From TrEMBL:
Its EC number is 3.1.26.5. SUPFAM superfamilies: Ribosomal protein S5 domain 2-like. RNaseP catalyzes the removal of the 5'-leader sequence from pre-tRNA to produce the mature 5'-terminus. It can also cleave other RNA substrates such as 4.5S RNA. The protein component plays an auxiliary but essential role in vivo by binding to the 5'-leader sequence and broadening the substrate specificity of the ribozyme. InterPro entries: Ribosomal_Su5_D2-typ_SF, Ribsml_uS5_D2-typ_fold_subgr, RNase_P. It comes from candidate division WWE3 bacterium CG23_combo_of_CG06-09_8_20_14_all_40_14. It comes from the Bacteria. GO terms for molecular function: 3'-tRNA processing endoribonuclease activity; ribonuclease P activity; tRNA binding. It holds the Pfam family Ribonuclease_P. The gene is rnpA. One of its GO terms (biological process) is tRNA 5'-leader removal. It catalyses: Endonucleolytic cleavage of RNA, removing 5'-extranucleotides from tRNA precursor. This is Ribonuclease P protein component. Belongs to the RnpA family. Signal peptide: none annotated.
Amino acid sequence: MLAKRYLLNKKEVAVFKQRGKNVFRTPFFNVAVLKVSDEDIVKFSFVISKKVSGRAVERNKVKRLLAEIIRNKLDKFKRGFYIVFYIKDKMCSANYEEINNLVDKSISEISLA
C-alpha cells in the first residue's frame, strides 16, 4: 500500500477538483493530473464508484492493486503532481499485467516520467 504521504488529503482533493484536468483514458481507468509547484513529491488518489461494483470488497481490492502498482513505480514519476485515477468497471476483471502495462503507458503518454 502507498504511504500516507503519497495520498491526497481533503484540502488537496478540493484544489484538484477546481483545477485538475483529465489527460489520459484507458479501458480500465482515466487519469487526471494537476501540476503543483509547491509540492516536492507526487501524490495520488483513487476514485471508484459504487456503480463499478456494489461490493466494497471488490472496490477495495481494485484500489489496493492499483496502489501497489503505483508504489512499485514511484521513482518513475516526476515530482510536483497530483494524480487521480478514476477507475472503471472493466478493471474489476483485469489482471495485474494488463493494469501494469496501462499504468506504464499512461506515465509515458502524460510525460510524468
